[in-house]
C-alpha cells in the first residue's frame, strides 16, 4: 500500500512542474512588452517601467526567473493583484469557499438524481423510463450550460418570480464568515431568514452546474449496472430466492458503484470549468468569476496565480480519488 | 477498420462473399435511430450553412433601431418578415442564426482538423519512437488533461488575446491529448501485428510504416472521436464566445449572440432562447452521430 501511495504521489511531481511552467510562461507569452500590456492604454513612464521590470525580475535570465518564481510559489507568495494590491493568495482564499459550496451542492444534486435514475433505467431496460432517462441525459450532456442558466433565470426568476437572479445571499444579511460556506454560516449566525435566502440563491446555480455531471453519472450508473446485472453472482443471488430489492440494492449496486466513483472523481475538473460559466451568469462571487474579471482587467498576477491554484486543486483531488480508489479496490493497488 | 471487417465472420449468411464494408457499416449504423436522427439534423445544418445567402431573409449585420427587439411572429407585435424577432439593435435573429451555422460548423471542423492532424502525428511519433520522446509527449498531454479544459482554453486566449482564431487554437490545443492518446494506443497495438513486420522486412521506412501501413488501420477510433469531438469543440468555442473571449461582435456566432443578449433576458426572451437552442440541437446531433458511429465501428460490440 505504501508503495502504491508513493508511486502515485511521485507521478504528480512532473504534472506540478508542468503547471508551474505554464503559469510562469503565461505572463511572459503576452505579445509585446508585458508591462506595457498590463499598463494598457494609459501608458507608463520610463522610471516606473524600469521599477516594475525589476519587481517582476524581467531583467534576469529566464531560468533564474523561473527559479525565483518556484521558490516564491512554494512559500505561498503568488504576487499581488494589480488592481486591488491585495495578495493573490488572500483573494483566492476568501473567494474559494463560494466556489466549493456551489460545486458541492451541484455534485450532490447530480448524485441524488443521477444514481437512482441510472439504476432504475438499468433495471427497466428498454422501457419508456429507460429511453426517457437516456434521452434527457444525452441532452444534458450536450447542454450549453451558459444558455441553460439564462433559460432557468428566464423561467424561474422572470416569469415565475421564484428565485433571485444573482449573488449568494440577500443584501439585507451580513453573515460573519466562519467556514466560508454560507449555508452553514447563515445557520450559525442565527439570523432569521438568512438560511432560506442562501438556499434560494443556491438553487438555480446548483441545477446549472449539476446538469452535466448529472447526465454523466446517470449514463455511467446505467451501463455499470447493466454490466453487473449480467454477472453470474447476480443469477446465483436470484436463484437463492433473495428478494429483487436485496439483489439489486445489496449485490449489484455495490459493485456497480466502483466505476461510478471514478467518474465522480473525474467530474471535479468539469465542475471547475462549469463554475467559471455558472458564476459569470449568476454573479456568484467565486474564483471562476474572479478569473474572468481578471482577464478583462488585464490583472495578470491574478490570472497566473488563480490558474495555478485551480490546477493544483484539481490535481490534488484527482490524486485523492486515485488513492481512495486503490483503498477500495485492492486489484488496482497491486496492479503496479 | 478494413482489417477488422475482413476478420469478422460474414454476418449475412446466404451469400458466400462478405458484404461490402460500407454496406455492413450502414447496416449497423442505420439500426441506431438516434444516430440516423443526428445525421439528418447535421445534413440539415450543413445545407442551411451552405445556402445561407439564399435562405436568410436579411443581412445578418443590417441594423435598424426602429424595429429593435421585435418579438417572434406568433407573439403580439411580431411580423413574418422577422420570423424569430429582432435583437436589441434591430438585426434579424433568424438571419443571424442561419449565418451563425456557417460559423459554428466552420469552427468545429477547423478545431477538429487541427487537433486530429497534430494529434495523429504526435501520437504516431510517440508510438513509433518510444523512449524519451514518448515520455515527453505523453507527460505533456497528461498535464493538459489534468487542467480543466475550459480553464486552460481561457488562459490561452487571455494570453494570445480574445478573438475567433485564437479561441479556435486554444480549444484545439485543449482537446489535442485525446487524439494523441488514441493514435499512440492504436499504433502500439498495430505495430506488433504481422503485416507491419512484413512491411518492415520488405524495407519500408519509418515514415512509410507510419502513414501508409499503420495509420489507415487506426482511423476508426479517430473518426468516432472526431465526431464526438466536434460537439465539444462547438460547445467550448461557444462558451468562449459567451465569455467575450471568442468571436467578437458583430460576428453572428451563437455564443457571442448569447453574450450580447444577456442583459436583455428580462425583457426579450427570444434573443436569449434561439441562439442557445441552435447550439444545443447541433451539439446533440453530433453526439448522437458519434454514439452511432462508435457502435457501428467498434468491432467489440459487433458480435
Automatic annotation (TrEMBL), chain A:
Name listed for the protein in its UniProt record: ABC transporter permease subunit
InterPro entries the UniProt entry points to: BPD_transp_1_N (IPR045621), MetI-like (IPR000515), MetI-like_sf (IPR035906)
UniProt keyword Membrane present: yes
Record domain ABC transmembrane type-1: where: 96-321
Transmembrane segments: 12-30, 100-123, 135-158, 194-217, 256-282, 302-328
Signal peptide region: none
Organism: Microvirga puerhi
PANTHER family: DIPEPTIDE TRANSPORT SYSTEM PERMEASE PROTEIN DPPB-RELATED
Keyword annotations from UniProtKB, A to Z: Cell membrane, Membrane, Transmembrane, Transmembrane helix, Transport
UniProtKB/TrEMBL annotation, chain B:
ABC transmembrane type-1 domain segment(s): 101-290
Pfam family, one: OppC_N
InterPro entries: BP-dependent_transpt_permease, MetI-like, MetI-like_sf, OppC_N
Membrane topology of this protein: Multi-pass membrane protein
First-listed, main subcellular location of the protein, grouped into a coarse class: membrane
Subcellular location: Cell membrane
Keywords noted in UniProt: Cell membrane, Membrane, Peptide transport, Protein transport, Transmembrane, Transmembrane helix, Transport
Superkingdom per UniProt: Bacteria
Keyword Transmembrane on entry: yes
TM ranges: 35-56, 103-129, 149-176, 222-247, 267-290
Family statement: Belongs to the binding-protein-dependent transport system permease family.
Protein name, entry field: ABC transporter permease subunit
Organism this protein belongs to: Microvirga puerhi
